Amino acid sequence: MKMSRNIVVLGIQWGDEGKGKVVDFLSKKAKYVVRCQGGNNAGHTLIYNDKRIVLHLIPSGILHSNIIPIIGNGVVLSPVELLKEIFLLEKEGINIRNRLILSPLCQLVLEYHVEMDIAREEFLGNKSIGTTGRGIGPAYEDKVARRGLRIIDLFDMDGLCLKLKDILNIYNFQLKFFYKRKSVSYDLILNNLINISEIIKDMVLDVTNLLRKVSKNNLFTIFEGAQGVLLDIDYGTYPYVTSSNTTIGGIITGTGISIRDIKYVLGVMKAYTTRVGFGPFPTELFDETGEYLCHAGNEYGSTTGRKRRVGWLDLVAVKKTIYSNSLSGICITKLDVLDKLKEIKICIDYRCTSNLSSYMLQSGMLPDKLEPVYEIIPGWQKSTCGTKCLNDLPLLALNYIRRLEDILGISIDFISTGPNREEIIILNERF
Ligand code: IMP
């Protein structure tokens, strides 16, 4: 029997680890790239004909014409935003309409979800989560409450009208009377859905069935995680998390792929740490080094443009992700951002007044209760930018990589040394 060639790419911090570039690099050999969870809260930047294109929903790797992008059932999909991305790509001459495949089971993100997300965040003031304001939380709430609209509902417009009326009543009541905001128009949503559904309907296919055949036929497929595992609704720094399972479980339930058909899981980890939005961040930097890393790493969100919070690499948080996500290897990204530093710190433990330190982090508790214990590594102070060969890395940079492997107990299989697709060192390619 042929073995499947499915690999999973997961961010193993708080998102923005550079997964998009890694998936893009791996896509040249792939046939399918599959999004499994999240929605247009994610973002990845493509450079095409010297133009910067930011995509939020359509999977990475689509600049390779060999790639068939798939959006699985775990994704909450805004039809309006999807259409915008399709048009954006078509304007650049990139054909996507005939390639993109959508699961009929994707939940829809509609205008009232966005309004509710924004209303709640404003209402919460300094207790807010710092969401992306894209309606992701409310859309997942509707899914769990068993009242959400899905792509499949577009095939039964009469039924959809009834469901939409019911749900909009609930939202408009809250928006108007509790949050004192304008209500959302039923006609606007319905007209949008009628116009868009004709385009979307042609893309709908039984994704799980397709993936079963793909796995049997040994076609190289990349399952692309969105956000990072520390933002997982169950395992992340709750309540400062996103509303989906960003861990390996989200890949399985978000597509229907069999766990037995996953050959390799790549964890993508930035050489330092960033986070957008609120929530605990034990190694956060508030000094010149933090400003330097933010500037050198261009740490501004691709979805909201927000300045990211920056800190040292937290190996305690990362180490916890290895076992439960079945990681096979790690890709470290943005190594070059550390090039000019005289010394580099890595967090190897937390000093804590309680023996529940890791649970405290998972409970969104305040960082001042967790004091990071750092190991100091000498910086290499030479450029690694664009390095493609391990032998060309400065010795101190190589020592740094080997030390990370020692502490984490897992091999670093790839090192990304710059923003461009080919700026990557392959240490082990085991798939
Ligand atoms: P939501 O996913 O918009 O509900 O936001 C919840 C939290 O997840 C906020 O702190 C966001 O900043 C964060 N978040 C959501 N998507 C991403 C992402 O793609 N990268 C990094 N952080 C994200």
What keyword list fits this structure?
431 residues; alpha/beta; Adenylosuccinate Synthetase, Chain A, domain 1; Adenylosuccinate Synthetase, subunit A, domain 2; Adenylosuccinate Synthetase, Chain A, domain 3; 9-stranded mixed beta sheet; 3-stranded mixed beta sheet; 12 helices; 32% helix; binds inosinic acid
What does this structure look like?
The chain is an alpha/beta fold. It folds into three domains: 5-105 and 204-263, Adenylosuccinate Synthetase, subunit A, domain 1 (Adenylosuccinate Synthetase, Chain A, domain 1), CATH 3.40.440.10; 107-199, Adenylosuccinate Synthetase, subunit A, domain 2 (Orthogonal Bundle), CATH 1.10.300; 269-426, Adenylosuccinate Synthetase, subunit A, domain 3 (Adenylosuccinate Synthetase, Chain A, domain 3, Alpha-Beta Complex). The protein has helices at 19-26, 79-91, 111-124, 136-144, 157-178, 186-201, 207-216, 248-253, 288-296, 315-324, 357-362, 395-408, and strands at 6-11, 32-35, 44-48, 51-55, 68-71, 76-77, 101-102, 107-108, 221-224, 262-270, 273-275, 309-311, 313-314, 329-333, 343-352, 370-378, 412-416, 424-426. β17 and β18 form a beta hairpin. α3 (111-124) crosses α4 and α3 runs parallel beside α5. It starts with 5 loop residues before the first strand and ends in a 5-residue tail after the last strand.
